[in-house]
């Protein structure tokens, strides 16, 4: 499994993501700088990490979504390569229109940084197949702009198509319909605000994030 | 040529920052403010003869996120 982590100026969860990928695959990911125009040959999993790419200038994820490497990421996603965007990575994926909706300032205006309970809404996707349907898992969040918004028709559509991967079990940031993670139409792109890479070791306080990587990277225990 | 771009949240999109500003105004004793919506103002200095279509594309592709925002272009 050849994995890649995209690194933007201001990314700060790229190394945690790399540790998660290496823990599960046994092989260090390629760290790909935002100015690159191509992914390493044979990349078969792409992660967009959390952080504050480009200092959140204009809108969170807006500049990163227009960076040169994102064209290569979009092409890979189109070919079916799995793409995981966490936190700022989720914001980048919505800004790049690889996922529907937008992530706005938290309804309470505060930065939210704590473990949260999530309900696994779709346990059939390549990212969530190791979870049980409706299972409650615990993963940390750390964000200021995690308030998911889409118009009612879009929300109805993605819910009807089983594209809501995770929902918060109680209020975290004001997200429409408590949505914490969304899949694309083809199911190979997942964006989520909670950080699964921060829940892969017992020293983290929980390991519920590990199964996401194990499922997505094809190494189900 | 100066061009002003006003980016505003679409009607119906909740604006927590506007709400906080509203509360702060009330806290300062300014009554009679019915609502506050916060947006973004961007000033461009572009080549003379830049077309409306190009300006529109700049807004739609980057300056505004049309999922949540409207924009208005004003040639200064």
What's the gist of this structure?
The complex is a heterodimer of chains A (221) and B (76). Chain A is of the alpha/beta class and 221 residues long.
Give an account of the 3D structure.
Chain B: It comes from Sphingopyxis lindanitolerans. Chain B: It catalyses: N(2)-formyl-N(1)-(5-phospho-beta-D-ribosyl)glycinamide + L-glutamine + ATP + H2O = 2-formamido-N(1)-(5-O-phospho-beta-D-ribosyl)acetamidine + L-glutamate + ADP + phosphate + H(+). Chain B: Keywords: ATP-binding, Cytoplasm, Ligase, Nucleotide-binding, Purine biosynthesis. Chain B: This is Phosphoribosylformylglycinamidine synthase subunit PurS. The complex is a heterodimer of chains A (221) and B (76). By secondary structure, chain A is of the alpha/beta class. Chain A is 23% helix and 24% strand. Chain A is built from 6 helices and 11 strands. In chain A, strand 1, helix 1 and strand 2 form a beta-alpha-beta unit. The longest helix of chain A is centred in the first third of the chain and has 12 residues. Chain A is globular, with a radius of gyration of 15 Å. The two termini of chain A are 16 Å apart. In chain A, 54% of the residues are buried. The model of chain A has no long low-confidence stretch (mean pLDDT 96). Chain B is an alpha+beta fold and 76 residues long. Chain B has a single domain, classed as Mth169, Chain: A. In chain B, strands 2-1-3 form a 3-stranded antiparallel beta sheet, with helices on one face. The longest helix of chain B has 12 residues. The mean pLDDT of chain B is 95. At the A-B interface, loops of A face helix 1 and helix 2 of B.
What is the overall number of helices of chain A?
A: 6
Cα Rg of chain A = 15 Å
What is the first-to-last residue Cα distance of chain A? Answer: 16 Å
Instruction: Please give the share of residues in helix of chain B.
Output: 25-40%
CATH homologous superfamily descriptor of chain A? Class I glutamine amidotransferase (GATase) domain
Largest interface: A-B, 19 and 11 residues
Q: Name the structural class of chain B.
A: alpha+beta
Order of helices and strands of chain A: EHEEHHEHEEEEHEEEH
**CATH-defined architecture of chain B:** 2-Layer Sandwich
- The helix count of chain B comes to 2
Largest beta-sheet characterization of chain A: 9 strands, mixed
Q: Just give the CATH class of chain B.
A: Alpha Beta
Largest sheet of chain B: 3 strands, antiparallel
State the end-to-end distance of chain B: 8 Å
CATH class of chain A: Alpha Beta
CATH topology of chain B: Mth169, Chain: A
Percent of residues of chain A in helical segments?
A: 10-25%
Question: Can you tell me the overall shape of chain B?
Answer: elongated
Number of E-state strands of chain A: 11
Low-confidence stretches of chain A: none
């Amino acid at each position: 499994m050849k994995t890649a982590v995209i690194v933007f100026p201001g990314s700060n969860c790229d190394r945690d993501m790399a540790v998660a990928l290496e823990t599960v695959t046994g092989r260090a990911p390629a760290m790909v700088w935002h100015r690159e125009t191509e992914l390493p040959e044979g990349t078969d999993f792409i992660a967009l990490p959390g952080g504050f790419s480009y200092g959140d200038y204009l809108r969170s994820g807006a500049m990163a979504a227009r960076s040169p490497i994102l064209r290569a990421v979009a092409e890979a996603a189109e070919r079916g390569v799995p793409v995981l965007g966490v936190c700022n990575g989720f914001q980048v994926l919505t800004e790049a229109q690889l996922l529907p909706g937008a992530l706005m300032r938290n309804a309470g205006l505060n930065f939210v940084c704590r473990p949260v309970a999530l309900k696994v809404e779709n346990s059939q996707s390549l990212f969530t197949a190791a979870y049980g349907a409706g299972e409650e898992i615990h993963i940390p969040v750390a964000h200021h702009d995690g308030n998911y918004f889409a118009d009612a028709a879009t929300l109805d559509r993605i819910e009807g198509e089983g594209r809501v991967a995770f929902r918060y079990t109680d209020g975290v940031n004001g997200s429409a319909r408590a949505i914490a993670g969304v899949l694309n139409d083809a199911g190979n792109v997942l964006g989520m605000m909670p950080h699964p890479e921060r829940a892969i070791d017992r020293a983290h306080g929980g390991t519920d994030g590990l199964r996401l990587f194990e499922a997505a990277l094809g190494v189900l225990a | 040529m100066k061009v002003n771009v006003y980016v505003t949240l679409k009607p119906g999109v909740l604006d927590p920052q506007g709400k906080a500003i509203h509360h702060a105004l009330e806290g300062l004793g300014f009554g009679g403010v019915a609502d506050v919506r916060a947006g973004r103002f961007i000033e461009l200095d572009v080549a003379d003869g830049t077309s409306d279509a190009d300006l529109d594309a700049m807004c739609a592709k980057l300056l505004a996120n049309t999922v949540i925002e409207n924009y208005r272009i004003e040639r200064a």
